[in-house]
Amino acid sequence: MARALSVTRVTPADELRELLTVNEKRVVHLRGRGAAALELLLDLDRIAELWPELEARGVDLRPELGRWETLQATVSQRAPVVARELRAVGGLPAARAQHHPAGEPAWWWFLAEQVQTQRARRLTRIVITLASTATVLGLLYFLLFHVLFPVDPNLRAAFDAQSAGERKIAVEGDLNGALADFRRMTELRPEDTDGWLRVGCTLLRLGDTAGAAENFRRAQALLPNDTVLRLSRAPICHVFGVSDLAEADLRAVIADEPENPTAHYYLATILEERGGLLEALTALERAADLAESSGEIQLVALARFRIGMLMQQLATQGAIGATPTP
């Protein structure tokens, strides 16, 4: 399945090396270039066809072996991107049927099936993990609050109401039901700002800005200053789907206290979810540096972990670290 390249070749070995070079670059720049994904697979076929021919001629391919293995590993790693881009040319199964109507094609023609299998396995792991976590947390809750360290009944009831409300928002999308739970929190523990903030953020989702403002004022009266209010409100409103207010709170804190690591850390979460990965990375790096300077070791560890995850994601997308093998 030989395909013409733009540069004149002298030998099949030159062709193989050129194909490696072209596709080392191509595989990390596939997004938005559907046809390039098909060209990638066709070129992999050609490399696989040339390889045994050159070995049979006694050509020393040891310098190219590492590049070939790395290219295949990168294709496998970026399988979701390859499969998605191939939808622009009719999808991978259709391309496989067209270019390999007979015989067994190489493994890279089954990347779509590989992606589906990986997703199924990942979903299974998530379900198992969630089920296991729920069981463990339930047991710990029972032991802590009912056996080992019995607590104030109002505190326990408020915790139950909070958990019920958050579950109704996350799982059922039942804002009114959650609102009733959070109001129950304020009745049980009016001195606790968590209930007032949750009521306020839920009312914002329901369009009751006046009611939200009143509950935020009640929380503010229990807190030492506006910075504490904003840092307490931002993560709650973000989780409840009021990200605009959460971002405004965090940017206000950063404007007043540029060296507040918690504000930068929370802001990174919002930026990441909105697709601003590079901005999120900058915010996390700032949070890690500030937390390290102030001795907040736990926040440093969290920020560094998320920095690593974001850099992997950006490298996969070709935004950073996409230096091809020379």
What's the quick description here?
With 326 residues, the chain is an all-alpha fold. It has helices at residues 12-26, 34-56, 62-77, 79-86, 92-99, 111-148, 153-172, 175-188, 193-205, 209-221, 226-239, 243-256, 261-273, 277-293, 297-316.
Provide structural commentary:
The protein is an all-alpha fold and 326 residues long. It has three domains: 12-114; 151-242, Tetratricopeptide repeat domain (Serine Threonine Protein Phosphatase 5, Tetratricopeptide repeat, Alpha Horseshoe); 258-326. Helix content is 75%, strand content 0%. The protein contains 15 helices and no strands. The radius of gyration is 27 Å and the shape is elongated.
Q: What is the total number of structural domains?
A: 3
| Percentage of residues assigned to helices | over 70%
The major sheet is characterized as: none
- For the terminal residues, how far apart are their CA atoms? 25 Å
Q: Compute the number of helices.
A: 15
Q: What is the global morphology?
A: elongated
Structural class: mainly alpha
Q: Tally of extended strands?
A: 0
Cα-atom Rg, whole angstroms?
27 Å
Mean pLDDT equals: 84
